[in-house]
Structure formats: C-alpha cells, structure tokens
Amino acid sequence: MSTYQAPAKDTAFVLDQLVEFDKLCETMQLGEVNLELAKVIVEEAGKLASDVLAPLNAKGDQNGTKLVDAKVQESPGFAEAYQQYIDNGWATLTAPEEFGGQALPNVLGTAVNELWHSANMAFALCPMLTQGSIEALIAHGSDALKALYLPRLVSGEWTGTMNLTEPSAGSDLAAVATRAVPAGDHYLISGQKIYITWGDHQMSPNIVHLVLARTPDAPAGVKGISLFIVPKFLLDENGDPAELNDARCISIEHKLGIHASPTCTMSFGEKGGAVGYLVGEVNQGLAYMFTMMNHARQSVGLQGLSISERAYQQAVWYAKDRQQGRRKDGTKMPIIEHPDVRRMLMAQRAGCEAMRALALTAAAEIDRSQLDGDARAAARVELLTPIVKGWMTELANELTSLNIQVHGGMGFIEEAGAAQHYRDARILAIYEGTNGIQALDLIGRKTLADQGAALAALLDEMTSVAKDLHKFGLDDFAERYRASLARTQEVRVWILERAGRDRQLMGAVAFDFLMLMGYLCGAWMMARSAVAAKALLTQESTYGASFLHAKVTTARFYATHYLPRVEQHAQTLMAGLDSVFELEDDQF
Ligand SMILES: Cc1cc2nc3c(=O)[nH]c(=O)nc-3n(C[C@H](O)[C@H](O)[C@H](O)COP(=O)(O)OP(=O)(O)OC[C@H]3O[C@@H](n4cnc5c(N)ncnc54)[C@H](O)[C@@H]3O)c2cc1C
C-alpha cells in the first residue's frame, strides 16, 4: 500500500539554493533561525504528516462529516489528530510572538504546510482557514479584539472560518446581502452564508467566524461591505466560551471530494441576530479581505503542489509494484519499465519540483515584502500570487489525473485511492477565487495597472539565468528558455498595446496568459535548480550525486515537455477574441 513520505530533501534544496534561507533569516533579523533548524522542523512535521494525518485521509474520504442533532460531527480520528497537531505547537509556527507564536518565516510555514496538505488536505483546511483569520485580525483588529481572540486562535485551541460566499454572491462579492445592525457595543448579524469550510465541528471549544456583511446605511456594491467577528460561543467576562451565539450550521454539502472537510451552510440571526464585533472600520471589509488574499491564494496554490506530490508518490509505488508485460529475457516486468509510464512519472515529478520551487520562492517574497521598504518584493508577490494559485491548481488537476492513468483500470476503482486525490484536487481551481478570476487579476490589476512594469522586472530577472544554463552545458534548455522568454516579451507588448481597445479581449485571453506565465515561471525555477545542482556536483555537498543528477534530468524533462506549452498559449492568446465571442448567446 502506498504511504506518504515528506519530500524533505527537495524542500531543503529549494530553501537552501533557491530561497537562500539563511540570508533571508539574517535580513529578517531572526538570529537563531537557519537552514539546519528548518530541516529539523520539516522532518519532524513529516513524521506527524506520515504517521498520523496521512492514514486518516482515505478514512475521512469514506466517512465524511455528518450533521447530528444540529452539530457537525467531524470524521473519526480527526479530533485526536487535531489535538496532537496543536499539542506539538504546529499551529503557532509563523504567528507573532506577542500572541504566542514562534515568529518563524512564512516560507518555512509554507514548507511545513505542504506536508499537512499532502497528508490530508481535508484536515489541513481547518488550520489553513484559522491562519487566514489570524492574519485578518492582526492586520485590522482592534487591540481589544486581538487580546481576546488571537492567543487562542494562534495556539489552535479555537479555529477560524471565512464567511464570504452567499447564494447570490460568489465571484461577485458586491452582491453580499448579509446584514449587520448596530446594537450598542456590537452588531446583530443576520443572513445566510454558503460553502463555509469547517463552519462547524467539535474539535475545538469555540469557532471564530469572520463574516462579511452590510450595515443599514452602507453604500451599494463593494464599498459597503464590512468585516465582523462572530464567535460560535459568546465569551464570558474571563474570555471563555459561554452562551451559544445565534449562528449555526443548517446543512453540509455532499460533494465531489474533500469529504472530511465540512462545507457548511451557515445561518446567522434566526433568533434575532448573531452578536458580531466590527473588525477595523465600517465599509472596509473587502479591502481587509484583500490584504490577506495573497497568503490565502498562495495557500490554495500550495494545496495543488501537495496533492500532486501525494499522487506522484502513489504512482511511483504502483508503477514499481504492478507487473505487466515481459522483458526480452522472458521475465515479468513492472510497469515502471514501460516508456509511456516513465513519461507520466517524469511529468508528475517535474511538475511537482517546479511547483515546490515556485511556491517557496513566492512565499519567501511575502517575507521580504513585509520588511520595511521592499517595494520590489511587494510587487513580485502581487504578480506571482495569481500564478501560484491559478497555474499550480490547474496543473494539480492534470497530475492527479496522470496518477489515475498510471494505475490503469485500478485508478478508476475507489479502493486504490488514486481517485480520491483526483476528486479532492478538483476544488482547487474553484475556491479562493476561481482560476478565471485569477487570470483576470493577473492581466488586469497585476499587469495592465502598472503598464507591465512588474512583469518586465520579472522577465529581466528570468533572462539572467539563461547564460548560467549555457555555462553548465545545458544548451538545449537554454535555447528553449530564451525562445520562451522572447515570446513572452512579445505577448507583454501585444497585451499592453491592445488593452482598452476592446472590453472583451483581455477577458478572452487572460487564462492563456495565466497558464503561459505559469509554465514560464516553472521553467525559471527548473533552470535555477539545474544550475544549482550542476554547481553542487563540482564540489562536496550533503545532497549526494544521485539526487543532484536527478535534479538536472528532471529539469531537462521540464524543458522538453512543459516549456513548449508557453508557445502554445502564446499562439492561442494572440489569436485574440477570434472565434471566442462570434456566436450569439442563442446559438449555444
Ligand atoms: C468546497 C468549497 C469550499 C468553499 N469554502 C469557502 C469558504 O470557506 N468561505 C467562503 O466564503 N466561500 C467558500 N467557497 C466558495 C467559493 O469561494 C466560491 O464557490 C467561488 O468563489 C466561486 O463562486 P461561485 O461558486 O458563486 O461561482 P460563480 O461566481 O457563479 O462562477 C461560475 C463561473 O463563472 C465565472 N465567472 C463569474 N464571474 C466572472 C467574471 N467576473 N469574469 C469571468 N468569469 C466569471 C467563474 O470563473 C466560474 O467559472 C467554497 C466553495 C466550495 C465548493
């Protein structure tokens, strides 16, 4: 049976060679934090992920959550696993020390989060949403709200949720209709939120809902949305959970995947109004949500890597175990010896390595962007975020599908477990802003808004790697890489020249632009990895020759199998609106 192993060596390689973790920690003035400590933390996390969370993944899929007596009952074993997770301090990794956190860099938190999501994405969604709530409160909450809620959210004793979506307000949050009426020192919240992840459960004594709602005199649209804290249990004078608030889960969705993550319909104010406390200023709710979106969207991109890595490990295990066909000498052969199976395994491996490098590179840019005055990093975070979210989750759909293909018929049979990863991965392109919305963000707010400046800076930085590829004899990769960069420069000019001419044009080409940028960023990461591995091969290193040679080979595979997709997306993009909008609505 396939098990999960943390890819600790590759994580260490990326942190060391691409992120330059020690240098980052110095810049962040984190004296005692270094790569050696990061490796220990990743290895320790790997044990909990493999030994405790991974074995619960299939069980959670088969025994999803249930609504019993108006309470959501999480899947068997999850509460005990969650207790272990918080007892070992994993919830506190990156939070500020003043609220009980360990203040470790975001990039290290990201490396660790990869393991939780690989082991059990449905489980890991709960801490992920809590992290989002913590960030929102740190950035925008009053001192009083911070003091009351943050220490227990940071420790993981309480969990958090994000309540944005409503039946009529999905991608278009301007349509949020939940109401918040002032009532003394608090507000009374009423309305319905749908699809709320981990909206209810019994794993913690309180749940802190962050809810978008409108005050009575709020302006229409996005300018009239405010953010509120609505605790499941109101707090007594000691700050402990006491009376049940007027907020409850009225149903849980039956869905394609992540069965162990309760997706709740939440009803607020059935008995007159749920008590809610304003976060920050009135009418600033959506802006507040935006400040934490980079992190949340990168987390969903990371889930794309995590689930692809889990599926890859399973595919390798199966390909070595399953025998079909015979070698020339008549002996039976495992399917890993068939070139087509090899192609699929390499595609999974190269995709995962490119995604890991990109996820950690982008996460480190979040750390840098939080240092005073690092405008370059801030612009880079803005640009990379929709790419990490959009491209990595699209790729996750492809790579989890390849795992099924490696398994043959067995992949389609639930018992094998490959189908679960495929089903679980499907949500990633949808939540936290669909990939259509990510594409519009990339082309609009992140490219056109600054006249392509951040993109130009990124392309310049990418270009400098090409000569290093030549230096180490990776000429074929270098040529392909240069050609893709030149093509992307053309695309950049094409987009800037045509923006504003036709309202529909940018929307029609946005997705191809997103995917083009994703494959190019992946190539940038693989080029840097190959160069670093080649350099390490000329000296003594802890990685070992086998690992480093494999790194170079995997990068070369990426250059021949994924990089050509840049050209494909460029061609489609430059066809413009062409046939996309020619038919009338009633011709469909
Ligand atoms: C399992 C699950 C968990 C979730 N967890 C949470 C949660 O914890 N909290 C929360 O608040 N929400 C959550 N959501 C909601 C999720 O974020 C939304 O489903 C998502 O944002 C899309 O909104 P929608 O479903 O209304 O789709 P719609 O907005 O109706 O979109 C339908 C299609 O139209 C496209 N579209 C819509 N508008 C545009 C546009 N302007 N331009 C181009 N294309 C457009 C979309 O890309 C999509 O392809 C969750 C959803 C699911 C399924």
Provide a short characterization of the protein structure.
The chain is an alpha+beta fold and 588 residues long.
Task: Note down, in words, how this protein is organized.
- The protein has 588 residues and is an alpha+beta fold.
- The protein is built from 17 helices and 14 strands.
- Helices cover 57% and strands 12% of the residues.
- The strands form four sheets. Strands 3, 4, 5, 6, 7, 10, 11 and 12 form an eight-stranded mixed beta sheet that branches.
- Strand 1 and strand 2 form a beta hairpin.
- Helix 8 packs antiparallel against helix 9 and helix 9 packs across helix 15.
- The longest helix is centred in the middle third of the chain and has 37 residues.
- The relative contact order is 0.09.
- The mean pLDDT is 97.
- It binds flavin-adenine dinucleotide.
- Flavin-adenine dinucleotide binds next to strand 3, strand 5 and helix 12.
